[in-house]
Amino acid sequence: MNKARRLCAWALSLAMVIALMPVFAAPAMAADAATLAGTINVFAHGGTGTLTAVAGGGTVTVTGSVTDATNWLALDIDAGVTVIWQADYSGGLSNSLIFINGGGIFEVAAGGRIENPVAPNSVVRINGSGTVNVTGGTISSNAGYAIYSNANGAAVNVSGGTVQSAAATYAIYMTTAGTGQSVNVTGTGLVQATGAGGAVFAENGCTVTVNGGMVKATTGNAIYAYGAVNILSGTVEARAGNAVALCQGYTLTVSGGTVQSDPSGYAFFFGNGASGGSGVVNQLGGTVAGNMIVGGGSNTVTINGNFAVPSGVTLTNNGSGKIINNGTITNNGTITNSGTISNYGTITGTGSISGNAPINYYTVTYNGNTNVGGTVPTDSGSPYAGGTAVSVLDNTGGLVKTNYTFAGWNTQADGNGTYYAYGATFNISADTTLYAKWTQNAAPPSGSNGGGHSHPANPGSSFSGGSVYTKGGDAGIIYIVNKAFSQFSNVMVDGKTLALNTDYTSVESSTKITLLPAYLDTLETGTHTLRVNFKDNTYAAVTFTVSENPQPITPAMPVNPFADVKGTDWFIDSVIYVYDKGLMTGTSTDPMLFSPNMTTTRGMIVTILYRMAGSPEISGELPLAGFTDIDESAYYANAVKWAVLNGIVSGYGGGLFGPQDNITREQLAVMLNNYARFAGIELPETQAYPGFNDDAVIAGYAKEAVERFFKAGIIAGKPGGIFDPKGNATRAEAAAMLMRFIEAA
Predict the structure, then answer these.
(1) CATH 2.60.40.10 assigned to 462-547
(2) Does the pLDDT of residue 378 top 80, yes or no?
(3) Is residue 186 within 8 Å of residue 213, measured between CB atoms?
């Protein structure tokens, strides 16, 4: 039986044990220390020997010896009472021997032993926010759990002595019913499973810390966890199972100690028993003696710190497994990768990597380079996979510098690197910073007047036909310089780079520039500065005027209500379409803006799909009890309810839906695909799917949707033959996909 099936068998066995466990209400034997001590002293255990309890303040010390007890002790320890167990006690029937209620403390000290050899239940059960301290002695079970908790705030601290189970269950079992639980193994403490079960099972909300001592299992997992696991020192060992098995929602920090496993198991199993699980590794150091694996089923491991693969150790990333490295992987062993490794950090070391090569990602950062105003652009597509063609942004934030004019970007602050104008592309192969390039302004020639002026660095430039444009006109503004278009670096108005054939026209051998009417109509009335930068670092600058048309203009239908959506924009038809359908609205009303380059959130897209379905009435509470980030009063609340009920969306896990998170291009494709299934929409196949150059980066759950929507002509790629699945979908892209989707349906 392979390891994954063996784990499922263990999980099934545990579930059956829990389901069959009898539930008893423990007799209320005591509410204070004195009464509790008196009750213990007269307890008819039915075995051989005597228990002696002495109360002092809020503490009860129990000594003596009892063997073969036939009556279950069922000792209730309430808040404010501490029981120090120094007795040797063995026996009981079908229920737990010790019940710890809210705030009670049970301590097994040196010389103490408490054992339930036959009952399928636990020896110690924590029902309230109680604590078990094992400073010496032993808590032992041969047929069930040694310690079991389903209580908020429960704590098990093993600093000496032993907690053990010889059953097919776990020695310590902390369930999902409790939050804020902890298991701490320190000093010389030992938690062990000598039978077919494991040592520590910690579900959601439980933190396991090993800072000394030992946690070990003969057959099962030493630690199986859903929450935080911290290994600072000590030893975690598995003879046949996994030393540390991490399911989902976990956080792992290993700064010291030893984690070791037999070759039949793993030192670390990420995503054990989970499909689509995810977790975070803050640090993986210490001594690792055993292999590591990332399970298939789209399990994701995010590395945020140092992660060591020592010599002689193999890290296997299975099939659809994903490793996202934001930190440093030091590989002195072997990495076998049949899944995806997305490297945003560093991979170093002398080891080998076989299978799929890691995909390196690089950032593009813009720097104002001593600007005094405005903001630097932010590239929403960054970071990019290596080799991606990156388009250089314009001065979208209106950077300014006194007595200087923005003239593009350079890879060095001093301007001695590679120059890029707006719209230029480069293939990225390293983290790149683009610095604003500034050219110093010269004073206008003395005696210049009206209609603009030519810069002295390029005399002989002039307007042809005047320097005033009236909005709504058929002819633009023509400016003639004394250098041919082939010598142009870029053309700018008011510090912003213009797009050739969209904002202005010129041809290779011509010295004439024509500012197009469609562009001039977008400018505010008043005086503007036109600047032509040349490749020899000279330039010509003039001013021109835009005035209002005194006659009203009858707009073409349909009306474009948005000030930031131009008639030449590739997305104008899509924007007006979704606005007219009531699917998307503006981001402000004064002025009326659509914000086409703004990213779109998961909450926005779910709301749009809800509107497409006619905003059906939703009753009842959220059908997603685990979502902690959904406010019932939020605009998207009903949409999320509807979408979850109809199988259109799901959360991230860990109680999160992420309504404010930017939606990625692959997530948008998946949501639309799920909506198509819900609505019974059959999409046409108008073209073959050739695949994208970054297909390997597309999540497994999204591949079907991306291929289906490409074949239907609803989605397209980006320059360089990539789809950019992790890139954020802008409002313009979302509008375009929605229009194509509706028209294809």
Answers:
(1) yes
(2) yes
(3) yes
Q: Which amino acid is at 719?
A: P
Check: CB of residue 197 under 8 Å from CB of residue 167: yes
Burial code of 161-199, b = ≥16 C-beta within 10 A, e = fewer?
Answer: bbbbbbbbbbbbbbbeebeebbbbbbebbbbbbbbbbbb
CA distance 353 to 56: 64
Please report how the helices 703-711 and 665-679 are oriented relative to each other, as an axis angle in degrees rounded to 10: 70
Which band of pLDDT confidence, cut at 50, 70 and 90, is reported for residue 18? very low
As a three-state string, the secondary structure of 121-167 is CCCEEECCCCEEEEEEEEEEECCCCCEEECCCCCEEEEEEEEEEECC
pLDDT digits 0-9 by tens, 251-275: 999 999 999 998 889 999 998 766 6
Tokens 């670092």 sit on residue: 537
What is the distance between the alpha carbons of residues 743 and 588, in angstroms, rounded to a whole number? 28
* Interior angle at CA 36, CA 30 and CA 37, nearest 5: 170
Asked if the domains at 362-440 and 462-547 fall in one CATH topology, the answer is yes
Rounded to two decimals, the pTM is 0.59
Residues 6 or more apart in contact with residue 249 via CB below 8 angstroms: 204, 226, 227, 277, 278, 279, 653, 654
Helix (H, G, I), strand (E, B) or coil at 408: strand
Q: Are 396 and 377 in contact (CB under 8 A)?
A: yes
Name the average pLDDT for the chain: 84
Q: CB–CB of 359/343 below 8 Å?
A: yes
Length of the chain: 745
According to DSSP, the β-strands at 340-343 and 314-317 are: unpaired
- Closest alpha carbon to 574 in 589, 558, 591: 558
Tokens of 714: 């609803």
Amino acid identity of 498?
L
According to the model, what pLDDT value does residue 119 have? Answer: 62
The reported pLDDT for the residue numbered 553 is 41
C-alpha span between 446 and 546 (Å, rounded): 25
What phi and psi values does residue 49 have, to the nearest 5 degrees?
115, -175
Q: Three-class SS string for 578-592?
A: HHHCCCCCCCEECCE
CATH number of 362-440: 2.60.40
Paired tokens of 680: 């019974």
**Percent of the chain at pLDDT above 90?**
37
| H runs (alpha helix) in 293-400 | none
Least Cα distance to 493 among 474, 471, 520, 468 occurs for: 520
Question: Which of 404, 531, 403, 526 lies closest to 455, judged by CA?
Answer: 531
Calpha distance 725→729 (Å, rounded): 9
Q: Does an H or E element contain 232, and which?
A: strand 228-238
Instruction: Report how far residue 671's alpha carbon sits from residue 738's, in angstroms, rounded to the nearest whole number.
Output: 11
What residue segments make up the domains of the chain, in order of their start?
1-219, 362-440, 462-547, 572-744
Tokens at residue 122, please? 């636990």
